[in-house]
Amino acid sequence: MLGIGAAAAVLAGIEAAGLAAGDRSLGRAVISIDAADRGVRVDWSGIPAQGSPAFGAVDPVARQALAALPGGPPTRAMLLREAEIGGALTDLAAIDDVGRWVRLRSGRLPRPCTPARCEVVQLAGTGRLPHLAGLNVMRVGRGSIASLFPFGPLISSPTSRSILTSSSRYHQPAAPPFLLADGVARLATARALSSFQRTYSWLLPLTASSVHPWSSDGFVTRVNRARSDLEAGGGAFDLQAPTDQIVEAAATARVGQRRLLLLGGAAVALLLGFVVLAAVAGRREAHATARRLDRLGARALQIGLLDGVEATAVAVLGVALGWLAGVGLGAAASRHLGDPAGAALAHSAVSGTGIGLAVLLAAVAAVVLVLTRRSPALSFGGASVTVVDALALGALLAILLGALRGDTDAASLDRGGGTGVFLLLLPGLVVFVAAVATARLLYPSLRLLERLARSAPTPARLAVISLARSPGRAAIVVTFLVASLALALFASAYRSTLGQGQSDEAAYAVPRDALARESLDTLVLVPAAASPSAYRRLGDVAPVLRLTGEVSGLISSQGLTLLGIPPATLPRLGGWRGDFSSLSRSELARRIAAGPSAMRGTRLPAGARTLELPAEVRGTPLDVKATVMTPRGLFETLDLGLASGRTTLRAQLPRPLRGGLVVRLSLLRAGELPLGTNAGLGAQPVSAGTLRLGDFRAGGRPVPTDFGSWTGGPGVHATGSSVRYLLTPDTGVAIGVFRARQPTDGRAIPAVVSPALADAAGRDSLLPVSIEGQALLLRVTGVASRFPTIQGDLVVADRAAVSTAMNTIVPGTGVTNELWIDARGHSLQALRRPPFDVLDVSTRRDVLAGLRDDPLGRGAVLVLGGAALTALVLALVGVLLALTYDLRDERGELFDLEAQGAEPRTLLRHLRLRFALGLGFGVAGGIVTGVILGALTVGLVRLTAGAGEPVPPLELAIDWPLVGLALAGFVAAALLLAFVVTRARLRGTPA
Amino acid sequence: MKAIEIRDLFRVYSTPDGDAAALQGLTLDVGEHELVVVLGPSGSGKTTLLQIVAGHERASAGVVRVFDRDARRLPARDRSRIVGYVDQHYERALAPELTVRELVALPLELRGVPARAAARRVDALLERVGLGGRGDARRAELSGGEQQRVALCAGLAHEPTLLLADEPTGELDAANAGRVYRLIGELAREEGCAALIVSHDQASTAIADRVVQIRDGRLAAESGPAGNGASIVVGRGGWLHLPEELLARAGIGSHAIAALEEGRLVVEPAAGEELPVAPEPRVDGRVRPATEGAVAELRAVSKRYGATVVLDGLDARFDAGRLMVVTGPSGSGKTTLLRLVAGLAVQTSGEVVVLGRELSGLDRTARARLRAASVGVVSQQSGLVPFLGAQENVELGLALRGRPAEERHAPALEALKAVGLEHRAGQRVSRLSSGEQARVALARAVAARPALLLADEPTSRLDEANALEVALLLARLARELGIAVVCATHDARVIDQADEELALGQEASS
After folding, report:
1. What is the CATH number of domain B2-232?
2. B365 min Cα distance to partner chain A (Å)
3. What pLDDT does residue A170 have?
4. What residue spans of B324-389 are helical by DSSP H?
5. Domain total for chain A?
6. Which of B110, B368, B375 sits opposite A297 (nearest CB)?
7. pLDDT for residue A63
8. Which of A50, A222, A512, B342 has the smallest CB count inside 10 Å?
9. What is the pLDDT of residues A787-831, one digit of tens each?
10. Range of the domain at A562
């Protein structure tokens, strides 16, 4: 009963804790929804003066439609957006219960707005207040809005940003004043505003506790119904709700819960294991009782009824007590996860379904108990096969079939069905098969051991004989140990695997301490955000280039990511695992090294403020532009002016370009050109001629330029400094390019690629790819299935080479867009401050903290840890009980041994050795089974701790020191208890 | 109408060593109110016969009819009404958690008898067997004889028309056994039911209307009341099973000649037949120098278990080279006495001296060492390891006594020779007969040549032939090896061989 109750407690606890974790996860997902979208809103727009329904007509319709949704009644808001009111451009808004939405900085909150005195608080923008006949607007305070939800989607970006931040680094157009009044009804009906377009909003903000996993489906249904009601009611209502995000978050929560039920399945296996073992232990007694009753004339039905009632009583009482304990555990876990215990319990362990599950569990346990106790063994070829053996064979078959079907992922588990159910039962099946196999193998093993121990000291021989004499009893203890320790090891291994998975995931996402990239908000290029010296002060900074592309025609690939990385960074790179490639990191670095690949051109002196280029054009005049790579690696185009006849092209050098590298000259047609035919394609303008160039002069000083090392693009042919050009825009040669030859010209860039791309490589391992629309030629020098920060097909190459190659084709497309930083000192904090705060910075520490803080992840780790501990304790209690019963039942044998002359010391040693032998078998079997189970589960269940798709895939990670310590502690505790119990047993006289 | 009608009954079992026939064409009738006792040695098929009649096993072939109804097709409800069963292992038949009254009432409740009627019947039965005042006692509070009487009441509570009893006194002493048999006879006749009693105890014939003997799965002989007028049963096909004693006295070994002379069938040894030599326990011919005087002595020994006084001021002396039997009813302290002498229990008062050493002055280890050196014990539960051979078991016993490995082989073989099992030395104990297992236990006890051998009911589960063999062996061990042998028993065959008898507890078990 103890075992049944414990397993039921684990199952109930897991159910409740899993749901609580899922609830928290869903709550966090709701909170993570953009503030402007975090709620259900109904908007209506119109102009009363144009005949649109009045506020009083639309308001009841909207409120009625939203009545069934949580968080009601809705808050009403109104906005006249960027309206020119009384000659002033204004955002004039109103909201009910203004105090809830405003953080006051100065003045006071407005009183309810009336046309005679419409008090407002200014939340953003600048400009004069509107003055309108019939509406007296008076500002009574300044503040900021507490949430973007009421007006976020309705206002402009500058205003939005203005509302969010007190200042902006970069100059933005001034936003109009955003004025907020209290109370929608009065403002909505103000006659002075009747000709202005306004939007009314009815708002139901969502909080972390608005939607729960058990109500998410209902929430979506009610939103859809509300939408239908509004559309059916006519009028231009628009209902918005983050149903997609909620559905996705609910699915993730559901998957996380189901994955936790892996442990539930193992707990059920333990339950059934206890039931079976108890049944086997009580089989003889059951048969004796049945025989006794049969002799007394009881009918088969009466005997069966007795068995059934006995079994049912044990099962029901065990499950009931266990379930109660599990409810307590679940409540504690919920509180630990920060979720109100009652709600999760009410929808899990103590719900109708939960109680039903408990009843089903008790029924199954009772049936198994009865069947195992009463069923006869069948003989097959001299070996007897019991119901337990048949069940184990069936379980083994199920495991093999399931493994053949392959792994599954979140979607499969979410869908449930066969695969999901199988995976949930997997731990239980494996443990059950292992336990039965152990029991079957034990007797021949003991007999073999007995033969080997014939010359062993007497206590050892006695111990082995004693075990071999009663293999059934030994099997009970050993299989119980195997089941408990396997579950403990599996739970511990899976927990450490998930934990390691989180570390791997964080390292995969941020391979070094921090990763900085361009922010989509500020759109500041990485090299532009700060000077190289400022970056160097942060620590070891690796410039990285990340681009996307494809291999045309490769159906198996959905695009690729090209990562240009300094080879020297690779050997120390985090996030790498040996299973990504057969090549080591050092070898990978060697294989992608492309040699010197820095951009070449004409270096301009750092102090030069002007740039001149003597030029002589014979032919069509040209506009000449110079492309300069700045010292920070950015590219800017300098207009050198019109080249016509003999002239000196000239431009001022802005500060960022000083000290830069002139890498190309672009020749564009200038002015009206004579028309000419071209290959019968019709008339088109052309420009042709010869351009002779002198040396650059920067700051008045000549800068020697070896134009002999430059080359022309299509339409441009150069011999030294003499450049012949023929530009035909209609055939794609609108701009002639004359540029410095680059180290990557005509060379394939060595790259490590993913297997699908490697398979697509042609002769000499050459692989043409299209990167950001530009053609690039790679030479495949190695294969890796994964690389940190990349999902999908990958190309990893020398950053310098890629950068030069891309910038050669289109300057600026190969500019460093990421920095991978090994931080020094407190530089991680520095990354949050100017000048780096314009970048999007991720730190590995933050990513890892976020993963570990995920409620589903915490829930999984908590449950797994608890399960491991529970299983260990159960194992200890179980062996102690078994030892106690053994000593009680073997009084006769012990008495006989002592009668034959065995000293108490010999008996003690024999008892302890026997216990240790059984313990050894059980521990060994438990370890093997636990490792197999862990490997199978990790291999088949592709889920992170947070129930997401793991990148990289999980790898079984057993914390052997912890496992060793726990096992050592368990063994030590068991041996100590055995020592004490056996000593107590042999105290006094035998009789 | 006959109560039981059996024709050509066969029962064959499948075993790992092949098929074994427990019954081979047995034919037997039992009259409607007849009490028949079935005697036979171990393995003769007596219990199998009873199990088939009771419906607990199915016959392989033959006809079994109970009150003119095919036993195979008898519905369970009818069977439970007709048949009452008394098992030989009474403690297995009685649930430990129920009181005496509940135990006897259970068969009635199972058959739906109203509670009041059941209570009346129970009280009457208990009164009849002398347990009227023990209705609230539980099994553990009863003696062996009392428990078997309760089992008998439970078997008869529902007024069956056929009573089946399987070795009902197998675990009782002679006095209790006689009492139980008498009760069975009286109750069966009072209830008017037929009875089929299986036993190996000759005492059971005293109550029988007819006694039949089974050998090798067939009816061998039949006799009238109290075993008078025995006749050999002629089986189908003319099979006769002649008693071994007769054969031995006629000098018939493995071959005989049968001839008709003047209307008589004469059986005589075949020409050139050698008289088989009856296997007797062999001795090595050496007589161990006897220990002078008493090997063990009890001086005013008392032993109390809680409030129960088992031994009260007992004086006894056990000399070398003699077989002393300790007799007495169940609960008289026979086993306790042996344990005190073995040092496996400590007396409440008095002195127990073994080989000159007072045992209460020794700690547990010292007493174990004394046993290892000088005392052999054969307890009721032999503790032999079933999957080890006979010699291996004996050697294990020597190992327990601290004998080094090189000093175990020869003494073990010698001990097995002494008990006549040297040809079975390598046989697994589980494949030996019960008698052979008892002899292995004896060999294990004497292998170390102890000065004192203590045996507790060594023949309790043996049939007559095996019991006689063991009794003779005990006597020979005492006389020829000079061992002081003390045997607690109620077996008359052992008592007959004893040099002395120590009778404990004169009052009968209630």
Report:
1. 3.40.50.300
2. 5
3. 44
4. 334-342, 364-374
5. 4
6. B110
7. 92
8. A50
9. 999 999 999 999 999 999 999 999 999 999 999 999 887 788 888
10. 539-598+746-823
